[in-house]
Amino acid sequence: MAYRWKNDLSAPDATPEAVFMNRRQWMAGMAAGVALTGLSGRARAAGEDAGLEPNSWEDITTYNNYYEFGTGKDDPVKYADRLSIAPWEVQIDGLVDRPGAYAFKDIMARMTIEERIYRFRCVEAWSMVIPWNGFELADLLDMAGVQAGAKYVAFETVLDKDAMPGTRYPVLDWPYVEGLRLDEAMHPLTIMATGIYGRDIPKQNGAPLRLVVPWKYGFKSIKSVVRITLTDSEPPTSWNKANPREYGFYSNVNPEVDHPRWSQATERRVGGGIFSPRIETPMFNGYGEDVAGLYDGMDLTRFF
Ligand SMILES: Nc1nc2c(c(=O)[nH]1)N[C@H]1C(S)=C(S)[C@@H](COP(=O)(O)O)O[C@H]1N2
Ligand SMILES: [Mo]
């Protein structure tokens, strides 16, 4: 299957970046002609794309949005350590055959962890490239058994008021909630991330597992998920509830639909330095070839 390349980042004491570079050399070797079943030409090319040069561990783990810990980009790294993540359970319920509280460690034992190097585009018009480790959300949903009537998937973040100083303020209606249409959730690009650079995902990035939907604005990629509910109607989402004029349910990256207060045509790549030129934002964040078909016939200005 396309996109599926196995995670071989297992060397425990190498620095993440060093392990990662070895991996890239290995990928380059593959591109030079060694056959590997299942790795599509497109995925291979993407690994060598200059626009896919990953951000540093430092950038990815110190410049964060996680409003439960505060609205500053450095609040999550300051406070997220207060959150207890072990043991962790994910409640999977609604229109599924096997509802229940699934222990994170049992989920991990059953999922195939892969590496996905994805562009990540925040609605605030900054971006990064992040080498995630994780598994396809479709595999988790299959484990629970999606029933025929399910059309949407709702997600919820943990709410621990003692550990999360930001939740004392009604910036958003806590807990943070998000949602996807079922076909978006089942798409092979949609993952639950559990790692970055081969290490466990840090708390400020949404430990122990968070959604990543690379063709949508970053706020759809909900962190520290404790509940996944299969439903037959479009679930409420936090930013849409807070400001429906500015944040739609779909929130696909779209350079032609500006935010009411700023342009979405270009973005600032984090880590490039303040004088680095802005780069053009591609439709669907560059994943249109894979996902545009999900929206055939839809007016993406209306369903923004
Ligand atoms: N629970 C929760 N999830 C969240 C957020 C949040 O504030 N709370 N912020 C979102 C936004 S706006 C972005 S851009 C990404 C940021 O992910 P990162 O900090 O790992 O880069 O997380 C998203 N998921
Ligand atoms: Mo964001």
UniProtKB/TrEMBL annotation:
<dbReference type="InterPro" id="IPR006311">
    <property type="entry name" value="TAT_signal"/>
</dbReference>
<feature type="binding site">
    <location>
        <position position="122"/>
    </location>
    <ligand>
        <name>Mo-molybdopterin</name>
    </ligand>
</feature>
<feature type="binding site">
    <location>
        <position position="64"/>
    </location>
    <ligand>
        <name>Mo-molybdopterin</name>
    </ligand>
</feature>
<feature type="binding site">
    <location>
        <begin position="221"/>
        <end position="223"/>
    </location>
    <ligand>
        <name>Mo-molybdopterin</name>
    </ligand>
</feature>
<keyword id="KW-0560">Oxidoreductase</keyword>
<comment type="subunit">
    <text>Heterodimer of a catalytic subunit (MsrP) and a heme-binding subunit (MsrQ).</text>
</comment>
<dbReference type="InterPro" id="IPR000572">
    <property type="entry name" value="OxRdtase_Mopterin-bd_dom"/>
</dbReference>
<dbReference type="Pfam" id="PF00174">
    <property type="entry name" value="Oxidored_molyb"/>
</dbReference>
<feature type="binding site">
    <location>
        <begin position="67"/>
        <end position="68"/>
    </location>
    <ligand>
        <name>Mo-molybdopterin</name>
    </ligand>
</feature>
<keyword id="KW-0479">Metal-binding</keyword>
<dbReference type="GO" id="GO:0043546">
    <property type="term" value="F:molybdopterin cofactor binding"/>
</dbReference>
<dbReference type="GO" id="GO:0030091">
    <property type="term" value="P:protein repair"/>
</dbReference>
<keyword id="KW-0500">Molybdenum</keyword>
<comment type="similarity">
    <text>Belongs to the MsrP family.</text>
</comment>
<feature type="binding site">
    <location>
        <position position="205"/>
    </location>
    <ligand>
        <name>Mo-molybdopterin</name>
    </ligand>
</feature>
<protein>
    <recommendedName>
        <fullName>Protein-methionine-sulfoxide reductase catalytic subunit MsrP</fullName>
        <ecNumber>1.8.5.-</ecNumber>
    </recommendedName>
</protein>
<dbReference type="InterPro" id="IPR036374">
    <property type="entry name" value="OxRdtase_Mopterin-bd_sf"/>
</dbReference>
<comment type="function">
    <text>Part of the MsrPQ system that repairs oxidized periplasmic proteins containing methionine sulfoxide residues (Met-O), using respiratory chain electrons. Thus protects these proteins from oxidative-stress damage caused by reactive species of oxygen and chlorine generated by the host defense mechanisms. MsrPQ is essential for the maintenance of envelope integrity under bleach stress, rescuing a wide series of structurally unrelated periplasmic proteins from methionine oxidation.</text>
</comment>
<dbReference type="GO" id="GO:0046872">
    <property type="term" value="F:metal ion binding"/>
</dbReference>
<dbReference type="GO" id="GO:0016672">
    <property type="term" value="F:oxidoreductase activity, acting on a sulfur group of donors, quinone or similar compound as acceptor"/>
</dbReference>
<feature type="binding site">
    <location>
        <position position="157"/>
    </location>
    <ligand>
        <name>Mo-molybdopterin</name>
    </ligand>
</feature>
<dbReference type="InterPro" id="IPR022867">
    <property type="entry name" value="MsrP"/>
</dbReference>
<keyword id="KW-0732">Signal</keyword>
<feature type="domain" description="Oxidoreductase molybdopterin-binding">
    <location>
        <begin position="84"/>
        <end position="239"/>
    </location>
</feature>
<feature type="binding site">
    <location>
        <position position="210"/>
    </location>
    <ligand>
        <name>Mo-molybdopterin</name>
    </ligand>
</feature>
